[in-house]
Design brief:
Blueprint (H helix, E strand, L loop, with lengths): L15 E9 L5 E8 L7 E12 L2 E4 L6 E5 L4 E3 L7 E10 L2 E2 L3 E7 L24 E5 L1 H5 L4 E6 L8 E3 L7 E15 L9 E6 L8 E7 L1 H6 L5 E7 L2 E4 L1 E3 L4 H4 L7 E12 L1 E8 L2 E8 L6 H7 L7 E20 L2 H5 L16 E3 L6 E3 L7 E3 L2 E3 L2 E3 L7 E7 L5 E9 L4 E8 L3 E8 L13 E9 L32 H14 L6 E7 L9 E6 L4 E16 L3 E9 L1
Antiparallel strand pairs: 1-2, 2-6, 3-4, 3-5, 3-7, 7-8, 7-9, 10-22, 11-22, 12-13, 13-19, 13-22, 14-15, 14-22, 15-16, 16-17, 18-21, 19-20, 20-21, 22-27, 23-24, 25-26, 28-31, 29-32, 30-31, 33-36, 34-35, 35-36
């Protein structure tokens, strides 16, 4: 492009363009923002020069088939339309004071966005997530990585309600009403044995082209160490620049770091935006990292574009920055304030039950029926899309057949504990064993039992020895001779049964053969075998019962005394 020099007028009266930032609006239009040094007067107009470029001989040169275009604008920001998707341009902004030209500024070799990996620092794939009924995979070659290109796919989630702008300021940055959000995905990095360099992640507050947003990046340890970066980090994409965010607190290196391929990494994010501050709490397989972004006040309008927090949107993105990354699902939802502050609240909407494909076995034929409709959840009184599951791969059913160690038993039922990714679709229990059919209701490998939240067990009662239960009845009276009767049985399982049997024996057996010892006046006529009656109401003897004498003994001291023993008939 042409060189820019002042061609007339007073030097101190001219304006200098000192900063220039290009913001893509679509695949064929951009917005140009500038800062100027303004002296005694402001520019009266601006000229925008646009030159299409081509890549030839290893460098960018002017396209001979496309002439330079000149546009006249009165004030910035300047919107430039009718550009070519994926084409590369030089842009030049020159201020004018009437017919006097001031000092301008250039932006060379700016590439327009496309729907492939071909943008200078960021690419966008604006297509629906549902590209297949399986994992969705994104990949970036080493050449694209070295050229700072990313593969991104994103979509809108109607369940996200964007907070309104409270205050608009071109100097201090926009302020937003408070809003709470949750985002998440599950990704698998490729095998790091064959390719140690892998990087993927999740993005939110993404603009219409995916070039602006907050991104949680997970990079394999070997790749991150080579670049002297953390394996888990949160960055902000602004136009063609990647800016790191400020981490809050101190992370435990042994918990978050150590990212390897061939493993599943679950990302769950809680976000709060209020005024000019965005707080981000990201959980990687349950381990937390916290970051913050805030608007830095500046007098430069161009600088404010890079130092401001990003405007909230309802778009969520998945990203691959290096190697190959596969994604299982993505969700985006709005939270209530009490859900955001509750550390125990599970923000992850994916419970493994959103797969809506089925196998039709009517008339003996197996027919796969895929349902490509979007998954919806109930938000209040409405059903709004908050989750996209990329597909249901084969759902595995596991049969478990066990025999009890202690038999027989009284089982109640099988349970998977709080494991929300496995479902019992059939079970059978008996006194000696049990069977269960367990369905993996996700499209990933899951643990059936890991000693923590995932478990598989049968609960119920087992039969065993209860120990000895003993009950001794009270004596009949002080004058009756105690005659012990001991009854033992292994069929008595509780104390109530033991007591009931003892009292029955006492009342129906022992009392029928009551034995009484007593002393009477000397009576040599009484002999064994005699039938006598005893009346002693104090001890319940009314004289109506007949007793047979079983023993007689006479003694003489101060007179004759007879002791007899008799038993009831």
């Amino acid at each position: 492009m042409r060189d820019i020099y002042p061609i007339g007028g007073s030097y101190t009266q001219l304006a200098f363009v000192k900063n220039l930032v290009i913001k893509p609006l679509s695949y064929t239009s951009v917005e140009i923002n500038i800062d100027t040094y303004e002296w005694s007067v402001n520019p009266t107009s601006y000229s925008i020069y646009i030159q299409k470029k081509i890549y030839s001989g290893g460098v960018w040169v002017n396209d001979p088939s496309s002439a330079e275009v000149s546009l006249s604008k009165n004030a910035d920001p300047f919107v430039i339309d009718n550009l070519i998707m994926g084409a590369t341009y030089d842009f030049q902004v020159v201020p004018y004071l009437n017919s006097n030209m001031g000092y301008g500024i250039q932006q060379k070799d700016y590439t327009m966005p496309t729907d492939g990996i071909s943008i200078q620092t960021l690419s966008s794939t604006p297509k629906d997530f549902k590209v297949a009924k399986s994992y969705m995979a994104l990949s970036v070659t080493e050449q694209d990585y070295l050229a700072k290109r990313y593969a991104i796919a994103f979509r809108e989630f109607p369940a996200i309600v964007v907070p309104t702008t409270k205050t608009v300021s071109q100097v201090n940055g926009n302020e937003y009403n408070v809003g709470y959000f949750s985002y998440g995905t599950s990704l698998i990095l490729d095998n790091t044995v064959e390719n140690p360099n892998q990087m993927g992640g999740l993005g939110f507050f993404v603009n219409s082209l995916g070039q602006t947003g907050y991104y949680i990046l997970i990079e394999s340890t070997s790749s991150a160490a080579a670049a002297d970066k953390k394996s888990v980090r949160i960055v902000k994409f602004v136009g063609n620049k990647v800016k790191p965010l400020k981490e809050i607190g101190t992370r435990t290196e042994s918990t978050v770091e150590g990212i390897y391929g061939g493993r599943i990494y679950n990302i769950d994010v809680k976000v709060k935006i209020e005024n000019r501050v965005v707080n981000i709490d990201a959980y990687i397989n349950g381990y937390k990292v916290s970051y913050q972004d805030s608007t830095v006040k500046t007098a430069s309008k161009v600088a404010l574009l890079e130092t401001s927090i990003l405007a909230p949107t309802n778009k969520v993105a998945v990203i691959c920055g290096r190697g190959e990354v596969a994604f299982d699902y993505v969700y985006g939802n709005e939270l209530k304030d009490y859900q955001y502050v509750d550390a125990s609240f599970d923000v992850n909407l994916y419970q493994g039950q959103f797969g809506n494909d089925l196998i039709n076995t009517s008339f003996g034929d197996l027919s796969y029926m895929g349902n490509y409709s979007q998954d919806e959840i109930a938000i209040g009184n409405k059903k709004l899309t908050a989750l996209d599951e990329f597909g249901t791969v084969v759902r595995e059913i596991l049969k478990v057949d066990v025999k009890y160690d202690t038999r027989p038993s009284y089982p109640i039922k099988w349970s998977t504990g709080i494991n929300k990714y496995a479902s019992l679709i059939g079970q059978k229990v008996s006194n000696f064993g049990a069977q269960a059919y367990i369905l993996n209701n996700t499209s990933t490998s899951i643990p059936i039992s890991n000693g923590l939240e995932a478990s598989l067990y049968i609960y119920g009662n087992t039969l065993g020895s209860s120990g000895e239960l003993e009950y001794k009845t009270d004596g009949l009276n002080d004058y009756a001779t105690a005659e012990p009767v001991i009854f033992q049985s292994s069929w008595l399982q509780n104390e109530a049964d033991v007591k009931a049997l003892a009292l029955w024996i006492k009342s129906n057996v022992i009392n029928k053969g009551k034995l009484i010892d007593m002393s009477i006046f000397g009576n040599p006529l009484i002999s064994v075998g005699d039938i006598v009656g005893i009346k002693y109401s104090y001890h319940g003897l009314a004289g109506t019962e007949n007793f047979i004498v079983t023993n007689v003994k006479h003694s003489y001291s101060q007179g004759l005394e007879t002791q007899i023993t008799c038993r009831t008939l």
